[in-house]
Amino acid sequence: MDIFWTSKALSDLDRLHDFLALIDHHAAASAVRALVSAPDLLPANPRIGELLDEFLPKEVRRILVRQYEIRYEIKDTAIYILRVWHTREHR
After folding, report:
1. What's the CA gap between 68 and 85, in Å, rounded?
2. Domain containing 17 — which CATH number?
3. Number of domains observed in the structure of the chain
4. Helix/strand/coil for 73
5. From 58's CA, which of 52, 65, 75, 77 has a CA 20 to 30 Å away?
6. In what order do the strands lie in the sheet with 68-75?
7. Residue 28 pairs with which residues in a beta bridge?
8. Which backbone phi and psi does 65 adopt, to 5 degrees?
């Protein structure tokens, strides 16, 4: 399976990096690296994340990385990273 990042997910990464960089540039870079690399496990185990019933019939799932939530959708032979949030954010 291939992984594709949506424009919203990429914008989320930029926003999170910019917010964290105000406090600590190294922590911001480390967090973004962890978030970008986390989905690498999905092609081998695409259903490892929790299924989010509110999106049915779409197969939208989430994984937690540190204090962040990554939402993704499985479509045919592709995985789309939809959004990335800090778990304390109101969304």
Report:
1. 5
2. 3.30.2310.20
3. 1
4. strand
5. 65
6. 2-5, 78-86, 68-75, 60-65, 50-51
7. none
8. -130, 115
